[in-house]
Amino acid sequence: MRFKSQIRNVTTFAKFCASLASLGQIAWLRLSDDNVQFTIIPEKGSQVWSQLSPDIVFESILIQSNEPGNVINLEVPIAALHRALRSAIGATSAQLRLTKKDNVPILSLTIVTNTFISGNSVSALGTTASTITDEYGTFELPPDESFDFDLGGGPPRERETTITQDVPVKVLAKHTVDGLHEPRCREPDVHIILPNLLQVKSISERFTRLSLSSKTTSSTNVVPKLELSANMHGSFKISIKTDALSISSAWTGLINPELDPSHVSQGSQGIRDHPSTRMRMLGGENGNAEEGWAKVRIDGKDWSKVLSVGRLGGRVIACFIDETALILYVYLQNEDDSEESCLTYYINSYSL
Predict the structure, then answer these.
(1) Can you spell out the DSSP letters for 202-269?
(2) What pLDDT sits at residue 262?
(3) 205: how many CB neighbours lie within 10 A of its CB?
């Protein structure tokens, strides 16, 4: 089998892997002619199933295997891949390929950097790492690879540096992944486009801190969960309730996207019978009726990790299955404005 690629956007790829690494240590990477899939299935917490168009991260890609569609399945330590990609940020070029070293399969990242230096200079290795702190947390950059002392004289010249980062992986046989599939869920009761994830993350983390502080004064050992709710009239709410407090924050005027009859069983009739149509009616004329809201209760810390996907931009559609689960669809626009790539997050609801 063969896999070789030229990475188009290292920063986007690194941020994508960072969002996955916050949810689990091991990712299932499925390469094929059609797409690139990363899946995280932790023992506890949210699952993520992502399907990326190769064009969103790769300039060129070659995949060959004996399986139909040239499918290659790998088990990848996603944090290690993220660290390798960090070191390629700002590079002239970066290639990722599947190879072997000492009979161990590895993903080898070859990084080429070009710098201009004066004719008379002395180079030394750098040791200081830097970080970028954005709205979603801290995103680490690698240590400076070198710095130059200019001794003067001589015309400037270009220096090319090649660095290789190896990430050990495991090749998975087809029968080991055949039984893996996305969770099977019924049709959602409410679907809504979420507001800016930075706002959602900020409020969610503040509420989580309040719930943790309330635990110290509460007679129960159960940490309160965040309650997320939405209706089919453009409203979304985050709330927390404890023995000591009850607080909520709400957004209105959001969009409930229309369902496409071609994507719904039984077409137009299926839309008329869809749970979201019923919830729209239950919400009443102005949507204030309690019966028209779908609710889930989730772990605040896990929710904050999921929201780190906001680094990638894109629109996020939340699908609420009342008292059961929350499904997030994160759509990323491809470079050539073709069909969007999609990340799908599955979050189970806690019972009361």
Answers:
(1) HHHHHHHHHHHHHHHHSSS-PPPPEEEEEETTS-EEEEEE-SS-EEEEEE-S---PPPPGGGSTTHHH
(2) 87
(3) 16
How far is residue 206's CA from residue 202's CA, in Å, rounded to a whole number?
Answer: 6
The residue among 193, 227, 114 whose CA lies nearest residue 160 is 114
19/46 Cα distance (integer angstroms): 12
Sequence-separated (6 or more) residues with CB below 8 Å from residue 115: 148, 158, 159, 161
Token pair listed for 221:
């050992």
Distances (CA, A) of 94 to 51, 141, 278: 22, 16, 51
DSSP state, 183? P
Low-confidence ranges of the chain (pLDDT < 50): 122-129, 141-151, 219
Torsion region of 7: left, alpha or beta (phi above 0 gives left; psi -120 to 50 gives alpha): beta
Which two structure tokens, joined as six digits, stand for 68? 């139909």
Cβ(3)–Cβ(97) below 8 Å: yes
**pLDDT at position 286:** 83
What's the CA gap between 81 and 221, in Å, rounded?
Answer: 38
- Token readout for 38 is 């990363």
CA distance 206 to 224: 13
- Positive or negative, the CA dihedral 191, 193, 199, 201 is positive
CA torsion sign, 50 to 56 to 57 to 58? positive
**Spatial distance between the Cα atoms of 56 and 35, rounded to a whole number of angstroms:** 10
